[in-house]
Specification:
By secondary structure, the chain is of the alpha+beta class. Helices cover 30% and strands 23% of the residues.
Length: 189
C-alpha cells in the first residue's frame, strides 16, 4: 500500500463525501453520526445538538467549496481511506465549546481535532502520515504551536476520533494537562 496525502480542496469535495458516506464507517455504520467534521466549527452547543445530518453535510460542502474547512485526505490509489481535520484555533470555535478546560485561547495556535481511518487501513501508519503532513502544512504557514485533545479512556476506535495519545507522543507532542474527559497535548513547531 502506498498512501498518498492530499489537501482538502473544492476539487476533492466528492472524495470527502465518498469517504464519509461510504468508506469511513463501513465496518460500523452506527458510528457514521453525520458530523461531516462540522463539530468543531459549531458556535452554539445547544444548536449543535439539534442539527441534522443533512444540515451538517450541506455546511461541510459550503465550507469545502469556500476553502474554509482545512484537512487532509489519505488515498490508497484513488480511494480515500483517511481524514485529518486541523486549523488555527480562531477558525475552530467548537474547541472552546466541546473541549472546555482543555482548549487554549491562543488564536495563533492551531489544533488537530479529528482523525478517521477506514477499516482495513487502520494500524498501518495512515494516521501518522496524516499528522506528519498536517504539522508540515501548519509549520509552512508560520504556525508556531499546535494542540490536540486525545481522549483519556481509549475505549473504542469510535471515541478515539481525536487520535490516540500514543500517536501524538510518537511525533513529539508533550502532555500539558489531563482531565477526566481528555488530555491536552502540544507541540512547538
Amino acid at each position: 500500500m502506498k498512501v498518498q496525502i492530499r489537501p482538502l480542496s473544492p476539487e476533492r469535495a466528492e472524495d470527502f463525501f465518498q469517504f464519509f458516506d461510504h468508506v469511513a464507517f463501513s465496518d460500523h455504520p452506527e458510528w457514521g453520526c453525520g458530523c461531516y467534521c462540522c463539530f468543531f466549527h459549531a458556535t452554539d452547543a445547544d444548536a449543535w445538538e439539534k442539527r441534522t445530518d443533512e444540515e451538517n453535510r450541506a455546511e461541510a460542502r459550503a465550507m469545502i467549496l469556500a476553502g474554509t474547512m482545512r484537512g487532509l485526505l489519505a488515498y490508497d490509489r484513488q480511494k480515500p481511506i483517511g481524514w485529518c481535520h486541523y486549523d488555527q484555533l480562531k477558525n475552530l470555535p467548537g474547541t472552546k465549546l466541546f473541549r472546555a478546560g482543555l482548549a487554549t485561547d491562543d488564536p495563533e495556535s492551531a489544533a488537530i481535532v479529528c482523525f478517521t481511518v477506514a477499516q482495513g487501513w487502520r494500524g498501518q501508519g495512515v494516521a501518522t502520515k496524516l499528522l506528519e503532513a498536517a504539522l508540515a502544512d501548519l509549520k509552512a504557514q508560520g504556525v508556531k504551536r499546535v494542540e490536540a485533545y486525545p481522549v483519556t479512556a481509549d475505549d473504542s476506535q469510535e471515541h478515539n476520533y481525536p487520535g490516540p495519545l500514543a500517536l501524538y507522543l510518537k511525533l513529539g507532542f508533550t502532555v500539558v494537562k489531563e482531565t477526566a474527559e481528555g488530555t491536552l497535548v502540544e507541540k512547538r513547531l
